[in-house]
Amino acid sequence: MDTSTIFPFFEKGLPLRSRDLNAVFRRADAEVRHTRTCLHGMGILYGLHVTVETNTITIQAGAGVTSEGHLYCSHTPVELTNSTSPASKIIKREFKAESFGDYLDRPSTTDELNDTVEHLELNSIGTPLTSETLANKWLIVFFEVVAEDLKGCATCDKGKRANVTTKFLLIDDKVWSGNGSLPGLSAIFDCGPNTATNQSNTFTPISTTVVRLSLPDADGDSNLSDLYKNSLNTSFPGIKDELIKTCGLADTIFGLGSMGKDAASMLDVPALHPKTNGQYLYDYLRLIIRAYNEFVTTPFTRHMANLPPKTCFPKHLALGKFDANGGFSDDVRTPFYRPIFSGTTDTDFEYARQLYERLISLLINADFGSLDTEAKKELRITPSRRATFPVGMQAIPFYLKTDALQKNWRPASQFDALILSYDGTKRLQHQPFFDESDFYRIEGHVNQKITLNDKKKNQFEDLRDSLNLPFQVVLVKPLRGQDDVPSLTEFARQNPGLEHQGGVPSGGTFVVVVSGEGNTILGDFCLPYWVQPPTPKPVIADFEIKSQTTKPNEGETFVLFSTSENQNDLEWHVKGSNGDGTRLSADNHQNEYAHFFPLTNLPATHYLVTLTAKKDGRESVEKTTIVVINQKEQTPPKASFAVDAQENGDVSENGDEIKVTFTDAHKPFEIKLIFQNKSENADEYRWQLDGKLKSKAKNTFSQKFVWVAGEADPQTFTIQLTASRDGLIDIAEKTVTASLPSLNPID
């Protein structure tokens, strides 16, 4: 568009020249056409739909404006019946003209064959409109501009005039595909917004997204903060670039200088990783994207696309295209492009401006440094809404400066007078807004310890129950094989959709990730559905007598060793009594516990040894009686056992070794051995396999053994029988080995 404001003034008595009048005409004509395109739009405004019958094309009433501003308007249908013959006509250079004025000072060129286009001109006597004639043709409305000389004779000059004629043309598809086409006949799909520039000036939703954490596919030993860091480092550069580009345009439109662009340029998320393990930064970046997309999809910003360049369809409107069989489609006709401010109101503009100012506030009011303060270390639950609702209907995250954001957090509230969202910085006894919320922000717990109240509930369950909120709490650990709490990767595989959202939806599951040692909270995720907490492994209390030392005429010292399973605390307790009922007791919390059992005046003193294994409010108890005999001479127990029977395989005993021989006929290589107790002078027995208690049977003990075919070094098992009486013990031990046949190929 020519933005020059230079035009002539006419003074009284000044000779009037042709170029002065032509300049006035050019300006007036350009203003009219620019008004049409820039204030009303360009393309087909309405109507101009095409119907085809035998030898007749009907164009319905309608209106349209070319990209150069030429107006076509018909209030009645137009019927086209024939095409000219032959099917070739010279279109002069005027076809590519940019304005009428170019022809008033330049002679017409009738011999420039390179600027021609094959076409069929409709509504003239000639070739019938058969399917063969129409095949692969575009139907266009064309404004033909011809500069006509008005010379009456060879020596006189009456000037010239511009003739603008509206014609309906059939243009072969090769013109649109670039084969011999002219610049003025660009295909409409090449004429979208901003084809004249390399950089888009439109507001569109941000194309870069925050890379989601692929928890089910993550290495079980991956550090949670590393997963966040990789996501942020991958996503951040593209998001920042799009923010800078869009904010530069928005600053200009809303008259904010470079405020938004400067704020976007200063955004530096990766530098803040160590302070939050990445989870709040992850949440922050997703919040920025939602606020950005909410801004660019307002009624005002949806119309912010620039118009196509005026050279796109300067003197034609495409009505549609005939296929190879003569069938017509208007799916590819010239669309209508609205000007930048068309269809919006002052309210739309103000609403978009407030959303943009909120975006700037989000960029400059992150306060991650305050997360180390005591005020931010208090667990809080804030009523909010799900991410599908507008940002302003959600609670303000606690890592933002609440006071700075409350003014424009929810711009819609200034039109509908609704209350602003707030940051739940305190635990209130009465929360009136929970009934209307479907999401609960949960914050202030990262890097804190898991604690239990007197009812064995953690702090999340305690606060949830005090507010009577409907969601489940599940604890997971980041690594595999840690106690009875599932790993994060295993839990994610079993429960699809695990994601960090800064809280939990109503009726969902809040998943807390704790460290392997110390129960420090590393982060949180959520699921939109209810998940029953995994059943913990049972606590099993058990112990064995590791050694015994006799102190003559004083007593016995026993070293007790715990073989308990799945516990994190132990408590030993010894209780004994003499003839006067005196009680002796001792406590110890170690795996190995040595205790002296003194003699009394009684022939035998009984001591009850109790081991209690504990974990997370669960416990298991194992008890054994130790008897100290008060006599100089006594017959000690003698532990002994032998194989009594077997199923499958051949068994032989040689001293302390039991050998099982298998052949191919014995497959699978497993055997059940029955051991006969041959101990003497004992009344209590403990059968153990590889150090684990299996039975306290007095007579026989059976055990199944299994070997794997092809093992180069078959496993060896150890069977141990402990016989005891009145505090004295004896131990018999034998090994069970196997001889396997060579592994033969499978037929």
TrEMBL record:
<protein>
    <submittedName>
        <fullName>Uncharacterized protein</fullName>
    </submittedName>
</protein>
